[in-house]
Design goal:
two-stranded antiparallel ribbon
């Protein structure tokens, strides 16, 4: 980790692909490239359960639009209004959902769009920005399967395989996921432990 002056962690503020250093021991190094990697991972997780939402709400495009905005950002788009607007719309779609599984699928899409706003703060709550989409997706599929937790576990295995070394590297800069949050929080913590256990570079 680079430092400025004293041996203190630095925050990287990303503008486009440029990085500017500021000294703050409570903050974490993140670049725009890191945020794009996280957004791509979250979008890939969320899109696996778009069909769960659309089976219940076929005429509601809001979660799909949120995932699309996350992909657009991941592929060098702007981190701007579209992400905020579609994330909020997906959250409202979750409130309109007809089933709990549908709601979880919409939350996965909301999390994908919101992942671009991972904050460079050394707080365990930030882990949800990285892993929320994967955890909500796992919860959605296990609910579709009659609350079969083995199905949720299988989904997490696929999510671990989907994570790139860059995503794992970003995750490891943050404290471990916090407690609480019901089954969704439990899935986040399982995913957190599994990803942190991966050898470097895998």
């Amino acid at each position: 980790m680079r430092s400025v002056g004293r041996l203190t962690p630095v925050r990287v503020i990303a503008f486009g692909e440029d990085e500017f250093e500021t000294e703050d021991a409570s903050e974490i190094v993140l670049s725009m490239r890191d945020l794009r990697e996280v957004a791509a991972f979250a979008a890939a997780c969320a899109e696996t359960v778009l069909d769960v939402f659309e089976a219940d709400r076929p005429d509601d495009p809001r979660p799909r639009e949120a995932v699309g905005a996350a992909w657009e950002f991941a592929l060098s788009g702007e981190r701007g209004k579209a992400l905020r607007t579609t994330a909020l719309a997906a959250l409202k779609a979750a409130a309109d959902a007809g089933t709990v599984a549908t709601r979880e699928a919409a939350w996965a899409a909301m999390s994908a769009a919101g992942s671009a706003y991972l904050h460079p703060l050394a707080r365990s709550t930030q882990v949800k920005h990285i892993l929320g989409a994967g955890a909500y997706a796992a919860r959605a599929v296990e609910l579709v399967a009659g609350d079969d937790r083995a199905v949720g576990t299988e989904s997490l295995v696929r999510t671990v395989l989907r994570a790139t070394p860059a995503v794992v590297g970003v995750l490891k800069r943050f404290p471990a996921a916090p407690g609480g949050g019901g089954r969704g929080g439990e899935l986040i913590r399982i995913l957190d432990v599994e990803l942190r256990a991966l050898p470097p570079g895998t």
